[in-house]
Design a protein that fits this description.
Blueprint lengths: L2 H25 L31 H14 L1 H4 L20 H10 L1 E3 L2 E4 L8 H18 L5 H10 L1
Antiparallel strand pairs: 1-2
Helix pairs in contact: 2-5
Length: 159
């Protein structure tokens, strides 16, 4: 093999190694939290975090939450909240877990010095977090073979 061919082979191997090392990072897509437009939802106090979902059964909140979930949560928790095993299946969280949910979303999850879930406080506002929770409430009903219409009736009875 002459010198030119060796040089070309070395460059090709180096470029392939670089592509293999960097390619997966590019393929993962935008992993930073995405902003969520919550226009139309009842505003919540920025300085007083609720411990119960004020948007449970609110159709607009569920729609906003579905989009926000797809942008911020689905890559780990699965499309349509169906976990692929990487992170917990959020359809299993019933309404009694509102406080648990909001705490984890606000603070994230860290163990042994590793971040398993980023903190979303300061990135998503309270309205966006509760809209995601409203969407997950609907998925919880569907997962448990309950009619989500009961959620809408509860919301209409409150409002």
């Amino acid at each position: 093999m002459n010198r030119t061919n060796r040089r070309a082979l070395t460059v090709a191997i180096g470029a392939s190694a670089l592509w293999l090392a960097v390619g997966p990072a590019w393929a993962h897509g935008d992993v930073g939290p995405q902003a969520v437009a919550t226009d139309g939802l009842e505003p919540l106090a920025a300085d007083a975090w609720l411990d119960e979902n004020p948007y449970r059964g609110n159709r607009q909140a569920i729609e906003i939450g579905a989009s926000a979930y797809g942008q911020n949560c689905a890559r780990c928790h699965g499309l349509d909240a169906v976990s692929g095993g990487i992170a917990p299946d959020l359809r299993e969280l019933g309404p009694e877990y509102d406080d648990y949910f909001i705490g984890k979303v606000r603070s994230g999850v860290q163990r042994n010095g590793m971040t398993y879930m980023p903190a979303f406080e300061g990135v998503l506002d309270q309205e966006a977090m509760w809209a995601i929770r409203a969407y997950l409430d609907k998925r919880h009903y569907e997962y448990n073979d309950k009619d989500p219409a009961a959620l809408y009736e509860q919301a209409e009875g409150r409002g």
